[in-house]
Fold each of these.
Amino acid sequence: MKKLLALTALCSVVVLLLLTPSCNNSSSNKPVASGKEDSLKKILDRGEYLANHVAACLDCHSTRDITKFAGPVVVGTEGQGGFEFGPGVGVPGKVYAKNITPDTETGIGTWTDDEILRAMTHGINKAGDTLFPIMPYARYNQMAKSDLLAIVAYIRTLKPIKNKIPARQLMIPIAMAYPAPALQASVDANVLPAETNKVAYGAYLGNMAHCTDCHTPLTPQGAPDMTKLFAGGHLFDLGTFKVVASNITSDTATGIGAWTEERFLNKFLPLREEKNYNFNPGKENTVMPLPAMAGMTDSDLKAIYAWVKTIPAVTNKIEKYPK
């Protein structure tokens, strides 16, 4: 039933994806209805993959068990929101991840596709309020519309959870944080790179995974220091542990320029098994959602590696676990 509701919500997308007239294909005995169902399944599968493993929507919008390595999502809380972001992660105040389940009272069950897309790509919610940019809408603003709609379709299949989210408490006007210059007016012209172009496709995935936002240090004013793009140094203090984002530039001394593809993949692949994150690492923990990202395909991880290797070197030695 949930998938049928998603089909209704995305009927216009399905029509666009099905413009090739299958009724003229005399070599196929497959009913047209089955073709539509197959196309919808592909959309939902793509949305589930991106929301869980690349854009990592559910890592922010669910409850994470930060007593476990890399804070895996607590099963049964997917999309319910409530995670608090405060000064320890660079927020001037407190903001809370929204409930993105289809609950009609506390979630987004009454939102249209366009309203969800506007929140995802421009940071404006159904009521017209501006979202704090810890929600990486400046990154999603660069995504192909087909991928955005696939995520919307998948989100609509989540279990509705009634969970009222507290109001944010900011110490600055939201207008000071809104990244207007970085936002395109429309996502319609955004292109999904060919997977065969590994660097371009890896850059596309890396943007969707908002690598920039964590792996770039902040200026004293709280903005990303673009002179040290991807050079690490962003401190995350979750109370029980402190960790500094790594330098992922191609610098061989302080970054990952000397890493092989195999070493890069081994950062993620072991986390495909629960036993490798189902433990309490104490103060040597990470906020990077490695269990979620480990669900990326090998080919997508290799594409990200190919892109990372092209990032200009910046020398910036990182103390991963400060005292």
Amino acid sequence: MRKFIFLSAIFTLVIAAAYFSSCKNGKTEQKATNSEDSLKKVQERGNYLVNHVAGCIDCHSKRDLTKYSGPVIPGSEGGGGFAFDQKLAMIPGVVYGRNITPDPETGIGSWTDDEILKALTQGISKNGDTLFPLMPYTNYNHMAKEDLLSIIAYIKTLKPIKNKVPARQLMMPVSMMYPPAGAMQASIDGNIRPPETDKVAYGGYLVNFADCGTCHSPMTQQGPDLSRKYAGGYPFDGGTFKVNSANITTDSATGIGTWTEEKFLTKFTPYREETNYNFVAGKENTIMPLSEMAGMTDDDLKAIYAYLRTVKPISNKVEKWPNK
């Protein structure tokens, strides 16, 4: 009888051990699944920002400027090499979009997250070089850290491309163009992304992320006139076409003061279809990457519109295609 009780106890302990082991493994598996789901969501947010809002892929890939809006050439995503010079972007020399793919030799595959974050928000590269402010690190310096980390998480998933990008060639030291003291924060930890329910604030956040203010400001010998931000008139020479950026202030005569929300959206949404940009545009082209920005959600486009409605009107008549 005692032997039977002893064997029964052993059997019970074995079953209990198996049960608790199963529970433990289940919790471990659940934790791993939750971690994977969380990372996936972060990367999806990064994908959205990199490809459709911040314009990282547009500047850091090769673009076909013969096609409408200069769509990214498939297979070059993040590989760098696109040249910004005096003609295209009024730069004192030439600057090339860097290779931001995970290639360890010619890209940023050997960079840590902190090193990438420093480049994004302070304009200082892994080797200590100052980045040319065509890279809008002053803007990113005011973005939520969670969004910046999502960008980093996503670009690490890009296909590594071995492409050694030429060194920049500037007519003056880049340190002379580094933003003045006070333009950037030492820490971005306190930056907050506004709630999407606050359309104006969230729209302003997106506009800053996309750096609309630089391209849509008049150009002077000292650079974009940010005292007349959004008034348009920044000239771009794409080789086969010349185009001036539009006035997107609320001025009724020369800006978008009379535009409805629907009209604003239709400046983007048609380019969700490849047939609407995959054609040789000739002289009636644009440098604005509409084929990529069209990927923004309707709600985000509406938020941008809501923000732009708060911009003061500036009278500035812009001739879109001066050589048409």
Amino acid sequence: MALPPEQDLPEEILRTQVITTARSPVDGKPLTAGEYAQLQAQLQKAPPPKLDPRIQDQVFLIRLRKTLLQLFPFLDI
């Protein structure tokens, strides 16, 4: 009763297994090692498009507001 079920693999065996699958950083789909390497090379050649500068400014202001409210909770901006 105190022993783990037979289908559980010991941790020592799990640590030695080579991981050959990965998840896409773009959409989270499972990939093989070769597909993952291709995707990484493709992302280095053409990185994803940047955000609109207006959106970047809005995100900066929201983060600044959050920080100010943590430092000065009585401001209620």
Amino acid sequence: MRALPFPLTRTLSLLLFSAFTSALKAQDPHSEFDRFTEAFTARKYGQCIVMGKELQKHTDHPYFLYQLAECYCQAGKFSKCLDLLGKLAKRGVSYKIEENRGFWLLYGNQRFSDYEEMFIENRFAIDKSVSSFVINDSLLLPEGIAYDSLHQTFYVGSLARHKVIRCSAEGSCSDFALGSQSGFWMVLGMKVSPDCQSLWICSASEKDSINGYSGIFQFEIPSGKLIRKYIVDNRNGAHFFNDLVVTPQGEAYFTDSKAGIVWQINAAGNGPEPYAKGFSYPNGIAVDNAKKVLFVADFQGIHVIDLLTRNQFLLNHQGKTFTNGVDGLYWYKGALVGIQATGKQDDRVVRFFYNLKKKSISRTEILQSYRSDFNGPTTGAIANGYLHYISNSQADSLQSNESVTHPEKLVKPVILKVKLD
């Protein structure tokens, strides 16, 4: 999920690594990224480079590399800067380097001009999405969405209103579950169980004394009755249950972004228990049930976990694409579909074809890119061969105290759909 820690924002300086910073802070108050950001903001480019080299051990997120390239340029290390810009251009990113004054020392350089052309070539719009439905509540701030194929119903969760609504395919919506009655807070990732008998939601709080509390809540479909809930408090550290997947066997796996953990609730309902660790702000999660593997997106990229052995590895993008910044992640017919942040407003919907034997991404297909009305696209739900996804969560309006800034500027949430078949 896009919901980021303190505060929820899409301001560029915080969007890219506020999530990653949170994961590091849990281990080190003086985290590598803290120092990198301080050096970058203060224009202490030598320190920025030193910190950036350390941070590269944890992530190769494109916008981080872009910032590091700027540091190299300002420090007069032009070859290093151009090497990074070349890598980014080949991975398909499209930053407007020609407008970034941080690279002015390279204006007129032939390599820089060549890369500038490559970035421009990458800046093509692919617009395959059409409207699915519009929700008549500008203050909803939706983050999670799920689909019940049996009753042909969508469920949409609210960050601001602490509730889940139920919507028809035409967009007629009504309340399904309220946090005030069931005890949940911000609603994040959601999934309908494979048998369409229940809705599972991730919830978290970042407010006051319960900042760092998280829970998994299971509701009966269609009644909306709370079946059970699992709460983890903040006594041993902050938690942020972000997204989940439910297998046909009844097992639930979910990401804990602040703790860097994937948790499990087994088919008997026991748990939650830590299942896998060592992630940098794990976010989207998907399962290939036939091959018994989990896919977990974090700021390093996309990890694969063997459900039989618990062995895990990071999918290699082979320098041809980037797999960081994936929010919603879905398995569909042998490929992964992701809603992905580039580190700017140019978010995209992508499909990654993978080869598990080679542990790599074999091909990337861009399904949607560069819509002018994108405002924090977050998650989606697959229904009838389409990915239906939240295109404008407007999550940057929600602050850490859960107040909403400039509510008068918010617009109605739009659910878009893009064809997968």
